[in-house]
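pinned: reference chain
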Amino acid sequence: MYETILFPTDGTDHATTVAEHAIDIAATRDATLHVLSVVDDRAFLILSDDRVDDVRADFRARALEAVDEAATAAVDRGVTVETTVDDGRPAECILECADGADADLIVMGTSGDDYERNVVGSVSQQVVRTSPVPVLTVGPDA
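pinned: its C-alpha cells
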C-alpha cells in the first residue's frame, strides 16, 4: 500500500520523533523514504536585503543537517532514502515534492518550535487540507 513515504522535516527535536514514525512505517512496508526540508522564504520578508544571503545560507545548512540526520537514521534501519532541500513556502513545497516523488503517504509533525517556520498558519494543517494522499500527523507529545 505504501511504497514511497514523504517525511518533511525542519530539524527540530519534534521532527526527530516524527522521523521515528516515518522510518518505522517505511521499514515495515519496505518503502522508500523521501526526506524533505524546506528553506522557508517567508522569513526573508522581514530582513534587510544585506542580511538575506547570510540567513539563507544558514537556513540551508540547517536544512541539509536535518535531511542528513533523518536519512542516516533511516539507512541504519535498512530503509532506502532519497533527500531533497527546497526553497519556498513549506506547504506548497511539501505537496509538490509528494507529487514529484509519487508519494502515497506523508508523515509530518503537527507543530514546530521555530517561529520563523510558523509565520502564516500551520503548515501541517495546510497539507492535510489539500493533500491528495493520506497524511499521518504526529503531535508534539507523541
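why pinned: Confidence is low (pLDDT under 50) at residues 115-121. Helices lie at 13-29, 49-76, 90-100, 123-130.
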